What we know:
- The structure holds two protein chains of two kinds.
- Chain A has helices at residues 2-5, 9-27, 33-58, 66-83, 91-114, 119-137, 148-155, 175-192, 194-204, 206-211, 216-242, 254-263, 275-291, 302-337, and strands at 157-162, 169-173.
- By secondary structure, chain A is mostly helical.
- In chain A, helix 3 (33-58) runs parallel beside helix 8, helix 3 runs antiparallel to helix 11 and helix 12 runs parallel beside helix 14.
- Chain A is globular and about 80 Å long.
- Chain B has one domain (57-302, 312-326): ABC transporter involved in vitamin B12 uptake, BtuC.
- Chain B has helices at residues 9-19, 21-45, 48-57, 59-73, 81-99, 110-134, 140-159, 169-175, 185-203, 205-215, 217-222, 227-253, 264-274, 286-304, 313-345, and strands spanning 178-179, 183-184.
- In chain B, strand 1 and strand 2 (183-184) form a beta hairpin.
- In chain B, helix 4 packs antiparallel against helix 14.
- At the A-B interface, helix 6, helix 12 and helix 14 of A face helix 7, helix 13 and helix 15 of B.
Amino acid sequence: MKKLAGRNEPYVFLVLFALCLLIEFRSGQFFSSNNLVDIASALIVPGLFAIGTFLVIISGGIDVSFPALASLSVYATTKYLLDIEYQGGIILPIVIALAIGALLGAFNGLFIGYFRLPALIVTLGSSSVFKGIMQGALNSKQLTIIPIGMRTWGTTALFTARNPVSGLTSRMPVAFIVFLIVLGFVFFLMRYTMFGRSIYAIGGSETSAHRAGFNVIRTKMIMYIMVGMIASLAGVIRVCMMQQAHPTNMLGMEMNIIAGVVLGGTAITGGRGTLLGCMLGTLLIVIVENSLILLGIPTSWKSVFTGALIIIGTGVSAYQVILMNRIKKTKLLVKEAV
Amino acid sequence: MMVSTPTSPIQKFQQMYRNDRHLWRLILMIAIWMLFMAITRFNRFYTMINFQTMAAQFPEFGLMSLGVMLCMITGGIDLSVVGVANLTSILMAFILINLTTASGGLPGYAIPLVFLLAILLGAAFGLFNGLLVSKFHIPPILATMGSGELFTGICLAITNGNAVSKFSRTYANTINNRLFDLIPVQLIFFIVMAVVIWFLLSKTVFGTKLYLLGTSETAAKFSGLNNTRLILQTYMLSAICAALGGMIMLANYNSARADYGTVYTLQCVLIVVLGGVNPVGGKGRISGVVLAIILLRLLETGLNRFPKISSYYISLIWGGVLILVMVLNYFTENNHAFSRLARRNK
């Protein structure tokens, strides 16, 4: 219990639970099957982005380029497949998008890892570059038709949930399985492999990690390539679910995703945080964004709530750190006095 | 180490270059771009009206960049500038609507009044940011991101996302005016603010304290500086700059809206970093930032003179320039370190 109290996840979970109960009491619609399915399918894309952002923040960096990266790779993929009049399944689009994502991720990794430039600046610059390539060189427009393989995959449902009261039905997209696979993979990676441990080590202290024998440059390079691939995957899923490719639709998501990850207890300075907390924080943001309407609050208040959530959430965890330091100090003083 | 006294003008210039490579690199880039424009589009670029338009456009994000620069010198960052600017301009737009007379004019005291109120409001928002950073010890990037979201949220909630206009045109006409038919009024705001900040940074103790705080918070604390107060003052100053930027936006668009200028958040950070301010803190000059602002405006306006090139390429060039400058800095600084090491080994 003591071990749990010092961590952020239980608090986030409690807040989440309280919010769910509040919505349930106010509307009686929250725990209905179709609302839960709706929230799960709304979690897929932000969840994938959050996994990528989580990796970057753990390593001590920060990534603001993933929406631009995802937009560019998925737009290029869709455009190319439309041009060659591709009729096949979903595998080829995902493979192409992953390849482009890996390339763009390597671009970030090169400057952050090899040249040791600050991650915030590099990703600011690269998001600008990606946007420029997409809107300038590819002359992006909204694509209302997407290849047939992507369209059918986006509408295929694992199961459908039907609300007996309102009669509304919600589909659980197949993409949810993809999300779970990525989540499981990254969980395994961070917990049981040397690679995951080295990401934590680099975030804790880059110099120490280097002295301890970790190859910092290579780890960062591989990590940014992975993050690029995860972001592209999220982009493909989003386009499939929306049934159209809108080039600028995803831009501007970065702040909320980072907020969710940090709310879940990941230290913005790196080296500390769990995937569970990251998912809880993201879920909290997703629920606030999607369910305020059930509370009877107009959607124009959405940003007020997210902003307040970020400030209160980060404030509480920052205050905890101060308190813990103070307790340690007094304990030390007591020891010295004895 | 001995300081060699410059003898010939060439040596003098070399030393000037060595003292501030980054600044000279920016000047060189501006010069090359101006030369390029002179060769390709002389008649359409080098006109009085073109330069006046540019001078009227950049103060809105220029002012915000000055605020971000101050925060970055202390080792923080301010991502709430656009939120502050929009909230101020929306609230002031409501006051202007109330002040508008039946004939569509404004009473004489209206414009000074709204500017005074805007500065006060900016200071209040900045105080909020500063408290979050200094008292609650929230990392600045998160604190200002959250407050920026909060301010934007309040804007959305009170306007429902609609534009606030229908106030007297007198306001926009006054700010869009040109002094002596030559200098845009917006530019004067920018120059005044830039001079004030330059004075604060390089001629007062406050500036020296800011650089010390940015270099090492612990050192600043043990030197007897009141870090809390310094941080509060910095964020207040930043938000005042942002609020003034918002007032200029209000004049340029003749309306206020919650989602005006959303691209400016990251653009300001880009400008400040391009201007040679170290995001870790403790380093940076206002001259570099002003040059970066001018470079951005020249690039963007110049590119608009080529109708065949999509204006979206500007973001590609902008990001490319940023990364290029950082890589160049990396190489020159490494050479520096390398040569120093070699000297020591001798």
